[in-house]
Amino acid sequence: MKLHDLRPTPGSRTPSKRVGRGHGSGRGKTAGRGTKGQRSRAGGSLPAWFEGGQTPLHIRTPKLHGFRNRGRVAYAPLNLGRLGEVEKGTLVTPDVLAHDGLIRDTSLPVKILGVGDAPKGITIHAHAFSRTALDKLAAAGSSVQRLGWPDNAPVDPDAEAKAEADAAKRTKGRKAKGRRAAAAAASKAAVAAEPTGEAPAEAEPEPEAEAEASAEADATSSRETEGGPEA
Fold first, then answer.
1. Has this prediction a pTM greater than 0.70?
2. Considering its fold, how many domains does the chain have in total?
3. Tens of pLDDT along 187-204?
4. Is 107 part of any domain?
5. Residue 121: which residues within 8 A CB-CB, separation 6 or more?
6. Which of 29, 45, 76, 91 has minimal CB crowding within 10 Å?
7. Domain limits at 108?
8. 15-41 pLDDT tens trace
């Protein structure tokens, strides 16, 4: 391979089109721009979103206002009232609910809601329970078991409570650290704002000036005593 043997990749470089060079070239006269019109003039290019003056797509499309929680979990809901015919001692799991047609979307975690009467003496395995559903199931003598998602493994309440307590403790520590840092910064700013120079002390009278002033006062009092009060 020599330097003079280097060639660009075929198709990567194409010669520029020579327009306006006669009819025989295929691009003479109007040079491929057509006859008249805005786009045939110099500087007549239009942006890609221009639609001839009508309301463009990016204006007539509804805007996505509001807030969307990225941490939101979508559940497949199921009310307790739909489990009223379940016999006592039955184990109810998401697979059983899907088999009986009580839930449609099996790709979502199951949440038991508290609408309706709770069945008595059953065990329900689900991924989430509302507070009302838990109270009704406890009053009816039924037991519940929370499941993890997506592995459907049983959740240990003690371990979950411990993890929540640890997370709350870490959050509290971070907040306290932030408050201490803010207080330190405020105190530092207050110290920097205080004046550094001390107030100048008052000049003390010199001893010689004090002696002269006292001598003049004594002489004046003596003259007044000898001559008496003036008329």
1. no
2. 2
3. 888 888 776 655 555 555
4. yes
5. 88, 89, 140, 141, 142
6. 45
7. 76-155
8. 999 999 999 999 999 999 999 999 899
